[in-house]
Amino acid sequence: MSDSPRTLPLVMSEPRGRKKPPRHLADLTEAERSEALVEAGLPAYRAKQLSNHYFTRLVDDPAEMTDLPAAQREELVSTLLPELMTPLRTMEADKGTTRKTLWKLFDGALVESVLMRYPNRTTMCVSSQAGCGMACPFCATGQGGLQRNMSTAEIVEQVVAGARSLARGEVPGGTGRVSNVVFMGMGEPLANYKAVIGAVRRLTDPNPGGLGMSARGVTVSTVGLVPRIRQLTDEGIPVTLALSLHAPDDELRNELVPINTRWSVAETVEAAWDYAARTKRRVSIEYAMMRGINDQAWRADLLADVLNSYGDWGWVHVNLIPLNPTKGGPVFQGKIFTRSEDGDMDEFVRRLEAKGVPTTVRDTRGNDIDAACGQLAALE
Description:
By secondary structure, this protein is α/β, with parallel strands linked by helices. The chain is built from twelve helices and 14 strands. The protein folds into two domains: 25-80, DNA polymerase, domain 1, CATH 1.10.150; 85-379, Aldolase class I (TIM Barrel, Alpha-Beta Barrel).
C-alpha cells in the first residue's frame, strides 16, 4: 500500500499541561534504572535489588525489603517504586475466581483490570488507556471518550497486582501465577503504542528485570490501526495479535468500528494476515455477537470468505464474543445493543466451520459485576 494520508499512523494526542505519571522502574530498562539511581545520588547496584523485590518477590511493603539499608530504603523506594494506582473497588464473580478491580490513577483517572482464574491458567485483562478514542458505540469505554494514555508502568502494575494476589493466596485455588495477559481492557492498545510495547517487554523480560512471562502468553488487541499493526510485525515479539473486526463488510463496520472509515476491512485483514505470515503466530479475530446487527448467517459466510481469501493454512481463528451489554447504551438502527440468541451464535459457528475457519465462542465471565471494560468506571 502507498503512504497516502489515509495510512499514516493515528496519533492520540495528550492535553497540554497534563502532569505525567511518576517515573517507576517498570518504565525503564535495567540500565536506565541504574542511571536513575546514580542521578539521585544512590548506588547503581540497588536497582537490581529493587527490581527483584518488584518483579520476583512481588513485594509492595518497603519494610519487607530487608536487604536495603534502612537509612536509604525510603529514598530508594520513592525514586524507583512510587505508588502508581490505588484500588477503589474490587468485585468478585465465579466463586471468587473472577476479580475486577477499579483503579484510581495519580491524577484521578479511572481504569479497570480483570483477573480470571481457570483450572489450567490465570489471565489478566489490562487497560492501556484511561478511556478510549475509538468511539465504538457498543463499548462502554468508547462511549466515555479518551482521557489519557497510560504509562508503561501503570499498565505493568495491573499485572503485578494480580500476581501479588495469586502469590498471597487471595484467589480461590491456592497460590499461583499469572500465565496470560490480554490487552483487552480500556483503551486501544496500538494508539498508545510506545507504552504498550514497553509493557510487553517488561512482562517478558527475564527476572529480575521483568516478570519473565512467555511472549506467547501475551495478546495485544486492536480495532485495526493498520500502520501500528505493521509496526508490531517488525518488532519481532511473538505476541498474539487479536483483531477486533465485529463485521466483515465495510458498510456495517464503518458504523460499529468508526476507524474502518480510515482503514477498510480489506486493508485491516491484510495487515493481520501479514502479521501471521511474518511471525507464524495465528491471529485471533474478535467478533462481538450483537443480536440482529451483525449475527446474520450470511455475514458468517462473508466473514469466512474474507478470511479464506488469504489461504486456508490455519493463519486465523475466530473468537465469537457474546456481547456484554452496557447500561444506557445507544440504539443502533432501532435495535438495542444486546447479545445474540444462542441459536444464532450456533448457526454462525456452523457456517464458519463449514468453510474451514476454526471458531470458538468465548467463555464469558463476570456479567453480574459489569465485567465488560469501562462499565465499572462509568458507574463510578
